[in-house]
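Dear Dr. L.,

I hope this message finds you well. Following up on our conversation about the binding site, I have prepared a predicted three-dimensional model of the protein together with zinc ion. For your records, I am including the exact sequence and ligand specification that went into the calculation, followed by the structure tokens. Please feel free to forward this to your student if that is useful.
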Amino acid sequence: MEYCNAVEREVDKVLSKFSAIKEHADRVMRDITNNTEALKNEFDSGPADHELTPTQILILKQTVNKIRDTVQKLATDHRDLHSTVSKVGKAIDRNFASDFASTSREDVFSSPEKAQLLNQIICQHFYRQGMLDIADELAQEAGLKIEDGDKEPFTELNRILDCLKQRDLGPALQWAQAHRDSLAAQNSSLEFKLHRLQFIDLIQHGPSAQDDAIHYARTHFHQFVSQHEKEIQTLMGMFLFLPHGISTSPYSYLLDPNLWVEISEVFTRDACSLLGLSVDSPLSVCINAGCAALPALLNIKQVMQQRQVSIWNGKDELPIEIDLGDENRYHSVFACPILRQQSTEANPPMRLLCGHVISRDALNKLSNVNKLKCPYCPVEQSPSDARLIYF
Ligand SMILES: [Zn+2]
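The resulting structure of the complex is given below.
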């Protein structure tokens, strides 16, 4: 849609420029025609053998010059219009770049095992999104072996998330209580947030719900006092405004429906991290990363074609660095300060005896018959003392 809008903006520019030029040209031509006709009438009205006076010659010359200038100016305007029109074509080319094949490698999925892996990833994605029937169908048609353990966690998570969407906190609370220790170990405030929402849900029913709300607070909040004292105090403040309605009180922000959106996110994040799953499906992460990187890759491909150079040789390495933002950074990377290359499995970072880190290729290049002088501090050491490190 964004692309369509970008092209449409260029088309609008052409249209407005075109109508402005047309209007201007019509007016100027009309003026010139009128002037010329008036002049012609004036000359025609004179006697047949009349010779032009110097003033008439001057006027005639001026008129001819004016006509020439105007025609030239109209031609220039027309040329300008052409460049605006060609911008539309460029906008279409830029926004609807089509040759994606040049940026991908089809052989990646060509072997049957890899195709099977791809099916498996797609299938897992469907389980994750709670589309169990589609996932089952795909598993069956693609002949995938799905263990119960593969879909079990997602089935449960999705059931709980569905209940949260319908503002039913029960299953989520049960789950949080069952995993209380592990959640506490990862510093999660999920259980408190669930109780808080349940409490807010109760208290917003007005004065009639006061006893229930007090009872709920007494039963559940004491265990969270050490961690969430301030928030509990705030919740207790809501009682003051119960008679006049909380929606008009300073606590009205606690009735924000966004808290329900937030609780689903907190639940997904904490539950996934507890189960050792990534929050986003790996498939959607890959596709999003690919979509974000595609324009840059298409650009570099075009530049390479224009200049007839190829800098895209490394099969597992992109020719340029593409920043996908913080949320897509999963682990630290190490770039060798000597070779100025990112480390790979084949060329991992090595820690020298003195504590400096360089890549293994650099280490091998700098070693001289079992001796190595650190390029940063000139400590002499044996290359075999260097240790592989993991990021
Ligand atoms: Zn050193």
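In brief: The mean pLDDT is 85.

With kind regards,
A. P.
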